[in-house]
C-alpha cells in the first residue's frame, strides 16, 4: 500500500493533480508519466491527507490492461462480437433506435447510467435521453447506492447531500455512530478522520471497522430500524432528549415519539439481539459527547425499508440535537465516486439538473429554457433502476437499452433474472473501456475513455466539486462518452451544438441548468476550481460583488424546508421481505472487500488486487459451518430461492451465527447478487441487497463447481449472445 504503481506509457514527462477513480471520498492524487511509466502518489488533499488505499495505489494498472477495448464491436450473424469502425457501429445503433421508436414509441428505448460518470457526462446523458431519445426510461446504478438516504434526507432536511459538512469535521468528533458502514475496508483513508472518536459500530459482522470500535452492536440483518427506534426510546426516557433543539428547530416530534414508545429496551433486544446494556451505553456515549455524529452506510440503507431505517437514525440525531450545529450532525457515507453528482445532474428517473424534480412545472420550464425546447416536450418520471431492468424486453418495457458506466449483470439484484432480461432485448449497447460481463452480452460495444484520459468534474461525498484532469491521450480508436452521445444524437436528428463534447463547455451549460436549484452549481467554474478554491454546493452565481464562497456546512442557519425547521419522520419497524425458514435457515448479507470495488470489472483486472482477493468467498460462523457440513478452505454452495453462489469458505467467529456474508465483486457463479431478490423500498426504489434467506451446502472437491469458483470470471450465455473465449476486443 505504500509503493507507487507503474506501467508503460509514451515517454513524455508530465504531472497532473487529479483524484482517485474509485469511491466517493475522491482522494487527491498526483499522476505522472515519464520514462515510460505512469506513477501515482497521494496529495495532501483534505479527505485523504496524504494517504491512499491499495485500490488507489494500483489505479494506473487499469490503464494498460491487456483486454482494453480499443475499437467498436458489433455482434454478427454468427452471434460473435467482431471489430467494426465507428461509423458502422453508430449508424447501426442509430438506425435500430429509430426503427424501435417508430414501431413502439420513445419509451421502448432505455438508458442505464453510472455513479462513476463525471458531472458533465451525467448531465449530457440525462439531456440525451430526454431530448434525443425522448424517453422517460432513464436511471442509474446510484439508485443501488444511497437512494434511501437521499429520500430520508430530503424528507428531514429539505435537501440531500451525503455529508452536509466537510469530512475534516469528523476529525474533531468525540463519538461517531456508524450504522451499517465499514469504512476501514470501503474507504480506508476516512479512518484517519475517525481516530480520535469513540466509534459505535452497528454491523452483524465484526469488520475491521468494528474491531476499532468502542462499542460494537450486532443487530440481526433487517432489524436496524427496530434498533434505531429503541435507541430513540431510551434517549427520551433516560432524559437525554434535547428539548430546546426539538422545540426551536424541528417539527413532528410527538408523532415520531409515539411510534418509538413501544420499543422498550427489552423488546428491542428480543427483535435485534442487541443487549439492553449495550443499547444504553450507545445512547449515553452519544448524549454525553460534545461533538457527535450519526453516519449511515449501505448496511442500513439497502433494504426494502431503507428510507424508513435512515429516517429512524435521522430522528435519533435530531432528538439529540446534532444536525444544524458545527461539530455534530447526521451524514451518509456515499459509495460511488460520483454518486452525488450523478443523481443531482439528471441521470435519475425523477430528477432534472440541479436536483430539480421532473414533475415540478417550474423545474421543467427552467430546464427546457436552458435546453431550448418546449417544457411540454420533456418526458415525465420513469421507473427506478431495478424496475427498469426488470421490464426489459417485456410488452411494457424497453426493447433497447444503452448502458454507460455500469455492469448490472454483476451489480444488480436478482442478477440471473436481470441477465435474462438483458438477453431479451432487441438491442443492447454498452459503452465501456473493458469488456465487462454486461459488455459481453451487448449487440454493440463502444470503447470509451478512462479516468486518466479525460477532463471533467466530480462531486464527492461532502458535496465538494472537484476537477478531474487528463494525464494521457486515449488510445487510437477510443472516444469520450460525450463524443459518442453527440454523434448518436446527430444521427437521431438533433443539432450537434445541443450536445457539446468539450467538458468545460458542457460545464458552462450545466451551471445555467442548475442555477436556482437545490444543488446549485452556477457559481462554480473551471477557473475557480483550477485556482484551488474549495467549492461545495450550493454555490450560486452572484451578479455583482464577491463570488459566492460555496457552502461547506449546511443547516447552520436553518434547514432547507420553507419554515427553516427540520422534520421528524414517523416510522414503523417491519420485517424484511424474506426471513429465514426451515428451507433457508440463514440470513445472507452482501458487501465489499478491501481489495475490490463495485462489480470488480476494474479491480479484478489488477494483478496485485486479485492476488489479495482472488475468488468469491463466504464468511460463516463456526457453529453454522458445522451444521452445514462445510469447512474452512473448502467450497460451498450458498443457495437462495433465486439462485446459487459457489464460494470458498471462511470460518469467522466474529460473525453472527445466523448470518453469512458474501462480497459482490465477483462474476460467473460467484455473483453474490444471484442470491438477492427483487423487493424494493417503496419510496426510494432501493433493492433489498442486505437480507436474503439462504442455506449453505458443501461442494464435492472434484465437481464442476470447483472449476467454476476457481475460474472466477465466467461470461454469461444468454440466448444466442455467444462470447469469444479470447479477451473481447483485444
Major β-sheet strand ordering = 5-4-18-17-16-6-7
Radius of gyration: 24 Å
Largest sheet: 7 strands, mixed
- Flag low-confidence runs: 1-10, 705-730
Strand content: 15-25%
DSSP strand count:
27
| Helix/strand class | alpha/beta
Helicity level, as a percent range?
25-40%
| Shape field | globular
Alpha-carbon distance between the two ends: 30 Å
Provide a compact summary of the structure.
The protein has 730 residues and is α/β, with parallel strands linked by helices. The protein has 24 helices and 27 strands.
What report would you give on this structure?
This protein has 730 residues and is an alpha/beta fold. The protein has 24 helices and 27 strands. The strands form 7 sheets. It has a 7-stranded mixed beta sheet with strand order 5-4-18-17-16-6-7, covered by helices on one side. The chain is globular. Residues 1-10 and 705-730 have low confidence and may be disordered.
Fold blueprint:
Blueprint: E1 14-19, E2 28-34, E3 37-42, H1 54-57, E4 73-75, E5 81-83, H2 86-104, E6 109-113, H3 119-132, E7 138-140, H4 147-157, E8 175-179, H5 183-186, E9 198-202, H6 208-211, E10 215-217, H7 224-237, H8 243-249, E11 250-251, H9 253-260, H10 265-272, H11 276-288, E12 292-296, H12 298-301, H13 306-319, E13 329-332, H14 339-347, E14 351-352, E15 356-357, H15 361-371, H16 385-391, E16 400-404, H17 408-411, H18 415-423, E17 427-432, E18 444-447, E19 456-459, E20 465-468, H19 481-491, H20 503-514, H21 526-530, E21 566-567, E22 586-591, H22 607-612, E23 617-620, H23 622-628, E24 635-639, E25 644-651, E26 659-663, E27 692-698, H24 704-711
Parallel strand pairs: 6-7, 6-16, 8-9, 8-12, 9-10, 11-21, 12-13, 16-17, 17-18, 22-26, 23-25
Antiparallel strand pairs: 1-2, 2-3, 4-5, 4-18, 14-15, 19-20, 22-27, 23-26, 24-25, 24-27
Helix pairs in contact: 2-19, 3-14, 3-19, 3-20, 4-13, 7-10, 7-11, 7-13, 15-20
Amino acid at each position: 500500500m505504500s509503493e507507487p504503481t507503474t506501467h508503460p506509457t509514451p515517454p513524455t514527462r508530465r504531472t497532473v493533480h487529479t483524484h482517485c477513480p474509485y469511491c466517493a471520498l475522491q482522494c487527491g492524487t498526483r499522476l505522472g508519466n515519464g520514462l515510460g511509466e505512469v506513477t501515482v502518489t497521494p496529495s495532501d488533499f483534505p479527505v485523504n491527507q496524504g494517504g491512499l488505499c491499495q485500490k488507489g495505489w494500483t489505479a494506473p494498472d487499469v490503464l494498460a490492461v491487456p483486454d482494453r477495448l480499443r475499437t467498436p464491436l458489433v455482434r454478427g450473424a454468427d452471434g460473435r462480437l467482431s471489430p467494426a469502425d465507428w461509423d458502422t457501429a453508430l449508424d447501426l445503433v442509430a438506425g435500430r433506435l429509430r426503427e424501435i421508436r417508430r414501431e413502439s414509441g420513445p419509451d421502448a428505448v432505455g438508458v442505464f447510467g453510472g455513479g462513476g460518470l463525471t458531472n458533465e457526462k451525467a448531465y449530457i446523458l440525462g439531456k440525451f435521453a430526454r431530448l434525443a431519445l425522448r424517453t422517460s426510461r432513464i436511471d442509474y446504478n446510484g439508485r443501488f447506492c444511497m437512494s434511501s438516504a437521499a429520500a430520508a434526507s430530503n424528507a428531514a432536511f429539505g435537501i440531500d447531500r451525503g455529508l452536509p459538512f466537510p469530512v475534516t469535521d469528523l476529525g474533531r468528533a468525540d463519538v461517531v455512530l456508524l450504522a451499517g458502514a465499514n469504512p476501514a475496508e470501503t474507504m480506508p483513508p476516512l479512518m484517519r478522520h475517525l481516530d480520535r472518536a469513540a466509534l459505535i459500530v452497528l454491523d452483524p459482522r465484526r469488520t475491521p471497522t468494528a474491531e476499532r470500535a468502542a462499542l460494537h452492536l450486532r443487530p440481526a440483518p433487517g432489524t436496524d430500524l427496530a434498533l434505531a427506534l429503541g435507541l430513540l426510546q431510551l434517549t427520551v426516557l433516560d432524559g437525554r432528549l434535547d428539548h430546546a433543539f426539538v422545540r426551536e428547530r424541528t417539527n413532528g416530534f410527538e408523532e415520531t415519539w409515539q411510534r418509538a414508545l413501544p420499543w422498550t429496551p427489552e423488546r428491542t433486544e428480543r427483535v435485534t439481539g442487541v443487549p439492553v446494556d449495550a443499547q444504553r451505553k450507545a445512547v449515553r456515549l452519544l448524549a454525553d459527547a460534545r461533538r457527535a455524529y450519526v453516519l449511515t452506510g449501505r448496511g442500513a440503507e439497502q433494504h426494502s425499508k431503507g428510507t424508513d431505517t435512515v429516517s429512524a437514525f435521522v430522528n435519533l440525531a435530531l432528538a439529540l440535537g446534532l444536525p444544524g450545529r458545527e461539530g455534530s450532525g447526521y451524514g451518509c457515507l456515499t459509495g460511488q465516486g460520483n454518486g452525488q453528482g450523478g443523481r443531482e445532474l439528471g441521470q435519475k428517473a425523477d430528477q432534472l439538473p440541479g436536483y430539480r424534480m421532473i414533475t415540478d412545472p417550474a423545474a421543467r420550464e427552467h430546464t427546457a429554457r436552458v435546453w431550448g425546447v418546449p417544457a411540454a416536450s420533456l418526458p415525465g418520471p420513469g421507473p427506478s433502476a431495478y424496475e427498469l431492468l426488470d421490464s426489459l424486453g417485456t410488452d411494457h418495457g424497453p426493447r433497447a437499452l444503452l448502458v454507460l458506466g455500469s455492469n448490472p449483470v454483476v451489480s444488480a439484484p436478482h442478477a440471473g433474472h436481470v441477465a435474462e432480461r438483458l438477453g431479451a432485448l432487441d438491442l443492447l449497447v454498452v459503452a465501456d473501456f473493458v469488456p465487462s460481463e454486461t459488455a459481453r452480452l451487448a449487440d454493440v460495444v463502444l470503447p470509451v475513455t478512462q479516468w486518466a484520459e479525460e477532463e471533467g468534474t466530480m462531486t464527492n461525498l461532502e458535496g465538494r466539486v472537484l476537477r478531474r484532469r487528463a494525464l494521457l491521450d486515449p488510445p487510437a480508436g477510443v472516444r469520450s462518452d460525450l463524443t459518442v452521445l453527440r454523434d448518436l444524437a446527430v444521427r437521431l436528428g438533433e443539432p450537434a451544438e445541443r450536445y457539446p463534447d468539450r467538458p468545460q463547455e458542457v460545464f458552462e451549460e450545466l451551471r445555467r441548468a442548475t442555477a436556482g436549484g437545490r444543488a446549485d452549481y452556477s457559481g462554480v467554474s473551471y477557473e475557480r476550481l483550477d485556482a484551488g478554491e474549495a467549492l461545495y454546493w450550493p454555490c450560486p452565481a452572484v451578479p455583482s460583488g464577491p463570488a459566492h464562497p460555496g457552502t461547506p456546512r449546511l443547516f447552520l442557519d436553518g434547514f432547507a424546508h420553507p419554515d427553516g425547521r427540520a422534520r421528524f419522520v414517523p416510522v414503523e419497524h417491519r420485517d424484511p421481505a424474506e426471513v429465514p425458514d426451515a428451507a433457508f435457515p440463514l440470513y445472507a448479507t452482501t458487501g465489499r472487500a478491501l481489495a475490490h470495488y463495485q462489480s470488480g470489472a476494474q479491480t479484478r483486472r489488477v494483478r496485485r488486487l486479485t492476488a489479495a482477493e482472488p475468488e468469491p468467498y463466504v464468511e460463516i460462523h463456526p457453529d453454522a459451518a458445522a451444521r452445514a457440513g462445510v469447512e474452512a478452505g473448502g467450497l460451498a454452495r450458498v443457495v437462495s430461492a433465486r439462485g446459487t453462489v459457489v464460494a470458498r469458505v471462511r470460518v469467522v467467529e466474529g460473525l453472527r451465527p445466523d448470518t453469512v456474508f458474501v462480497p459482490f465483486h465477483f462474476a460467473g457463479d460467484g455473483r453474490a447478487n444471484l442470491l438477492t431478490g427483487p423487493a424494493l423500498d417503496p419510496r426510494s426504489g432501493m433493492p433489498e441487497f442486505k437480507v436474503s434467506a439462504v442455506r449453505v451446502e458443501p461442494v464435492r472437491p472434484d465437481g464442476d463447481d470447483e472449476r467454476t469458483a476457481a475460474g472466477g470470471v465466467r461470461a454469461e450465455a444468454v440466448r444466442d449472445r455467444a462470447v469469444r473465449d479470447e479477451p473481447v476486443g483485444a
